[in-house]
Amino acid sequence: MIPQSFIADLLNRVDIVDVVGRYVQLKKGGANFMGLCPFHNEKSPSFTVSPTKQFYHCFGCGAHGTSIGFLMEYSGMGFVDAVKDLAQNVGMVVPEQDDKIPPAQRAQMQAQTMALSDAMTQACDFYRAQLRTAPDAIAYLKGRGLTGEVAARFGLGYAPPGWDNLKAIFRDYDVVALAEAGLVIDRVDEDGGNRKRYDRFRERVMFPIKNTKGQVIAFGGRVLDGGEPKYLNSPETPLFSKGFELYGLFEARQAIRDAGYVLVTEGYMDVVALAQMGFPQAVATLGTACTPHHVQKLMRQTDTVIFSFDGDKAGRRAARRALEACLPHVADNKTIKFLFLPTEHDPDSYVRTYGNEAFEQEIHEAMPLSQFLIKEVVGEHDLQSPEGRARVQFDAKPLLQSMTPTALRLQIVRGLAQLTQTTPHEIESLFELAKPVALSRKAPSRSGRPAPVGLELQIVRLLVGHPPLALDIDEAALSAFQFFGAEAAERLVQLVAGAQALGANGGFASFAQHLKSQGDEYDEIISEIARGAESDVDADRLFLRSAIRQIKEDALKQELMQLSAAGLTPESIARFREITAQQAQLEREKQAEFANR
């Protein structure tokens, strides 16, 4: 867990204009910077970046956030990775409360990572240079319909024949980093004596695999002739874990946003060939089944994920594994589909045979996840017999148990109940599904609390826009918030505590990042502040003091009325005097404030 104070300090040091400017062409426009929104198609700029608020906002699609949020949305990074990326750029070291690694060891690990990354970059440059003088490799790529432009876009290269070609670029061919990066293989004699080192990749077209920052972290090599293995991938290294990475994601990010979906294929060549033929929104898993980490990465990029598989048995098995990986991440605002091509085709050959329009139609008609799940569990079972229906339920149970209680799960439960002659309630009870949806009468509000209105809403806006104002709020004010009701008071107390935790240097960007990490309760207010002009903090401070004083006065009046209605007692008389003194003090504060204006 990264401390909130560090996040606030980081966002104070990072300039969002520089961060966004790496990816979006920005022009000065008044107090802000303007550009074309990278999250939706537009011809005139509606995307603004505020250097004072350290926040971005698009008036077209509503996207907004901090530097951290931008990296997460644009690059598909997770929160921790985005924080580490920004911290590295400003020379900060991210503290982690559960980090037990000694500083010296951590520094050694960072140095190792840098060495591996440098080795991969040099190797990539070498392979790309070799492709220019490799007629057989060039002929192979042209035979697959690829142009030099697409080959350059994906950084394709060629590993020439020979056992130690990398000696040409690495002065110390025996350095440990080459083996750790998976570029070379060390073979030791059976007696443990002589060690022989040789290049892992030889006589192969090379596909660089990049992370979300565009750094080369691994390679896939495709043999030119009928040799085996057909594809050779880098091994697992400190830089590369195939269960986390997707080929072509770095290159496809903007195309995915433009298309509104990502197409997940099974191979490198599918991705490159589809990009050549007008489908640059394709990515591929790296010689492994789709994992939940892959799904999370894809969901950060788009609301619609379409998996493309061959129609043979192997393709069906791969689709089933992808289905299982997706289920824990299913959400009602996300769409997941499965596209099955004829047995004799992969995406590349299908487009070449039938054309772009036919492939687009296949994508449009892809099978929704709900339909594929039902199809999988029904299989060849006999729905006319009790045993067959029971077996369908048996097969469906672990799949439905892995889903969160969404509206889509309820729809699948209803469909399954109809097929197996039961009721949705019976299915949910039998399967022991967490938080049964079928029994719910009414969906709760997003935060579980009514939205703030009136004076409460104004206070919330001020605190979100200028968190240091919360430092002026004392215990008496926190108690007086009960005047708004228990739920509103709880919200204000939590908001004040979060703002005060940031300290005097807390800003709108860091507080907004904190609030968004807690849920979407304040999204509308954050968006409103991001869209509006910068407010005068001194004027806001005066208004907040006046509002807090008004709340205290109203709370005291309310208590006086309750005391009068209850009748006089020694205790109530004493409390009456206390209230009168507090009211007099509030009046003196008001008069002093007016005198100083």
Automatic annotation (TrEMBL):
PROSITE patterns: TOPRIM (PS50880). Residues 260-342 form the Toprim domain. Its cofactor is Zn(2+). Its EC number is 2.7.7.101. One of its GO terms (molecular function) is DNA binding. One of its GO terms (cellular component) is primosome complex. One of its GO terms (biological process) is DNA replication, synthesis of primer. A zinc finger (CHC2-type) spans 37-61. Keywords: DNA replication, DNA-binding, DNA-directed RNA polymerase, Magnesium, Metal-binding, Nucleotidyltransferase, Primosome, Transcription, Transferase, Zinc, Zinc-finger. Binds 1 zinc ion per monomer. InterPro entries: DNA_helicase_N/primase_C, DNA_primase_core_N_sf, DNA_primase_DnaB-bd, DNA_primase_DnaG, DNA_primase_Znf_CHC2, DnaG_bac, DNAG_N, DnaG_primase. It comes from the Bacteria. It holds the Pfam family Toprim_2. It catalyses: ssDNA + n NTP = ssDNA/pppN(pN)n-1 hybrid + (n-1) diphosphate. Contains an N-terminal zinc-binding domain, a central core domain that contains the primase activity, and a C-terminal DnaB-binding domain. Monomer. Interacts with DnaB. RNA polymerase that catalyzes the synthesis of short RNA molecules used as primers for DNA polymerase during DNA replication. Belongs to the DnaG primase family. This is DNA primase. It comes from Duganella phyllosphaerae. The gene is dnaG.
